[in-house]
Amino acid sequence: MNFTPMLDGNKKLYDFVFPKDEYEFKVVWAREKISKKNNEMIEIVLHVYNNDKTIKVYDYLLEAMAFKIQHFCETTGLENAYADGILTAKMCVGRTGRCRLEVQSDGKYSDKNIIADYCKIEEIPF
């Protein structure tokens, strides 16, 4: 097998971190679970799109970050679920919308994208 070694000079070949910006997404997987602090949450996996590239980003919807739940519901068409105060993992899968990504650097691991927030897609007036 031939391969290109991942050396500092060509690290960019393996760097699939999108720049901080807004992107379209699709939820491809979700599950309900309990957080480390014993709170209900929904873990979701999104495919985030930038032209011809796609990355996988994990996110967690929990009541401690209520604004994120509200914005997720608004961008994915789940406003009624939000108004009812009930959101399930099954409701999330297949939903699409727009999110704002940021780059997280901790010095220990490679940089990665995180979901800073979900963005309501503004309607264009005619």
List the helices and strands and how they pair.
Blueprint lengths: L20 E14 L5 E11 L2 E10 L3 H11 L2 H6 L4 H4 L3 E9 L7 E8 L7
Antiparallel strand pairs: 1-2, 1-4, 2-3, 4-5
Q: Which architecture per CATH?
A: Beta Barrel
Number of domains: 1
Report mean pLDDT, rounded to a whole number.
Answer: 89
Strand order, sheet with most strands? 3-2-1-4-5
Give short descriptive properties of this protein.
17% helix, single chain, alpha+beta, 126 residues
Would you summarize the structure shown here?
The protein has 126 residues and is α+β, with helices and mostly antiparallel strands.
What does this molecule look like?
This protein is of the alpha+beta class and 126 residues long. It has a single domain, classed as OB fold (Dihydrolipoamide Acetyltransferase, E2P), CATH 2.40.50. It has three helices and five strands, in the order E-E-E-H-H-H-E-E. It has helices at 66-76, 79-84, 89-92, and strands at 21-34, 40-50, 53-62, 96-104, 112-119. The chain has a five-stranded antiparallel beta sheet with strand order 3-2-1-4-5. Strand 1 (21-34) and strand 2 form a beta hairpin. The longest helix has 11 residues, at 66-76. It starts with 20 loop residues before the first strand and ends in a 7-residue tail after the last strand.
